[in-house]
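Let's inspect one such protein example.
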Amino acid sequence: MKIAILSDTHNNGFGIQDALDKLAAMNIFDIIHCGDMTRGETAELFKNFCIHHVWGNGDLDTLSLQFAIQECKAGSSTGEVFTDIVDGKHIAALHGHNIALLTALTDNGRYDYIFHGHTHRTRDDTYGKTRIINPGAIGGAYRSARSFCVLDFISGDLTNYPIG
């Protein structure tokens, strides 16, 4: 299974639509969003996808995000941390602004993959058996390159895609 990993979209409608168009062309409709979507109106752009969103420090309107994400494809969710098992791999996602939580999830050794955002910088590191991935940012004030990534759980291949 392939899954898209996005983060820090910060209401960048153009960047989000660019990513969603690329994903639809690849027939990928499952997304993990590592936080800082910020508004429910932004979440509405994801209505044709199954999205698992985690709250970032910029997601202050959690109620409107919850309502909008409920309208996305069945199985969509939002919360502080997302965990699941995909193709036999234990995964966790969080925003990353809570360093103690990121460290605790990494140190417990249970997860094959941990996804996070917050820094607006891509990351692909291994700590013990855990692969830690940050897809970069699609929006926000930082002047970093805009990107998202797709992970193939079977092969372990990670592909980064630039935005706009």
Notes: The mean pLDDT is 95. The chain has one domain: 2-162. Helices lie at 13-25, 40-43, 62-70, 99-107. Residues 2-162 form a domain with the Purple Acid Phosphatase; chain A, domain 2 fold (CATH 3.60.21.10).
